[in-house]
Specification:
352 residues; alpha+beta; 10 strands; elongated
Length: 352
């Protein structure tokens, strides 16, 4: 008893079996039959009725632990679980073999077009290749991220980050951190205003990432293991340069580290001295733009803040210095020595 030549249909995972299913299976084993499902609806412990017994029987049938048997009094026979297990293992091995064959086939087919792609994106002797289109850029960055083993450095301008972009990047970022990769990320001060950015930063900081912000404008930069760097290759960022030339990557690393020394550690809004310094930094940055003759829209775009917020700063400065025009404000700022004092008081490397 318990052996059957009928191959069961494993529609239900064995882990989904319930206690009443095991009880029904025990009855089938003990008597090689169960009380008629419709004749004794209360025979299951706890008083469960016929519907529950039928559900249990259905799960036993779909998992292969019972099969129809016309010679049995109730029409069902229990199956040896080891036999069921052997079927399951065989199906898993067969599926794995198919997956391995498909993987080899995909690699072989892609191998034919990889050469074509590389021929059209030739990395010259200086270790430079351009990726066009967001799909190709993201694919190249994901590949470099998977290969990263020690360190990633990133500069992300533009103020508060998109919640959708952050959600998409969170999982691979955490995966890198959990396998021991160290991370330093620089945002602009204005990024602190975004709740999605704060949530993202909190999540990666809990895994050991270091995050800081700057008042100044900078461009996007990603460096993996100090061996490969990605920078924008055009103004609208629809093309990216992948750089592997050691001298150029080293230069970009040094550029990042200089910015890191000037940055302020990312803390929640209202974080005491950090918040005060950020406000002062933004004000000084706006003053520099005013002296340079930049418009509010240009200044806001460079600092990653809204035009309205920039205008509020300008209005406060005008009121404080008694300016009646934009040109006069630039003159008064330059004459006041505020920017000179800021340069003298700056202490590179100071962290808050």
């Amino acid at each position: 008893m318990g052996e059957c030549s009928v191959r069961p249909d494993f529609g239900t995972r064995l882990e989904s079996l319930q206690s009443q299913d095991i009880q029904l299976y025990r009855e089938l084993l003990a008597r090689d039959s169960a009380p008629g499902l419709s004749e004794d609806p209360d025979s299951v412990p706890g008083g469960q009725g016929v519907d529950i017994r039928e559900d249990s029987l259905g799960r036993l049938l779909s998992s292969g632990l019972a099969v129809p048997d016309e010679q049995s009094e109730t029409g069902f026979t229990p199956v040896n679980p080891e036999t069921v297990g052997s079927y399951v293992v065989a199906e898993i091995l067969e599926s794995s073999a198919r997956s391995a064959i498909n993987l080899l086939r995909v690699q072989e087919e892609l191998g034919q077009v990889v050469a074509e792609y590389r021929n059209n994106h030739v990395r010259d002797a200086r270790g430079y290749v351009t990726h066009t289109g967001f799909a190709n850029i993201n694919a190249a960055i994901r590949l470099a991220a998977r290969e990263c083993r020690d360190e990633v450095l990133t500069s992300q301008p533009g103020g508060a980050r998109s919640a959708a972009v952050l959600k998409e990047s969170l999982a691979p970022t955490l995966e890198m951190l959990e396998r021991g990769v160290t991370m330093k990320t620089i945002y602009q001060h204005s990024a602190r205003s975004g709740s999605a950015t704060r949530d993202f930063v909190r999540a990666i900081q809990e895994r050991g990432a270091q995050v800081a912000t700057l008042d100044e404008s900078f461009d996007r930069l990603i460096i993996f293991d100090r061996t490969v760097a990605f920078i924008p290759a055009d103004d609208d960022r629809r093309a990216a340069a992948e750089i592997r030339a050691p001298a150029v990557v080293s230069f970009l690393v040094a550029l990042f580290e200089r910015s890191w020394l000037r940055a302020v550690a990312f803390t929640p809004p209202g974080g005491g001295r950090a918040a005060t310094r950020i406000t002062d930094d933004l004000e000084l940055a706006i003053m520099r733009h005013i002296v340079a003759g930049d418009t509010d829209s240009v200044t806001a775009g460079q600092l990653g803040i809204s035009v309205r917020r920039c205008q509020e700063y300008v209005a406060k400065l005008s009121s404080r210095l008694g300016s009646r025009s934009r040109a006069q404000l630039g003159y008064l700022i330059a004459k006041s020595g505020l920017l000179d004092n800021a340069s003298e008081e700056a202490t590179p490397g100071a962290r808050v």
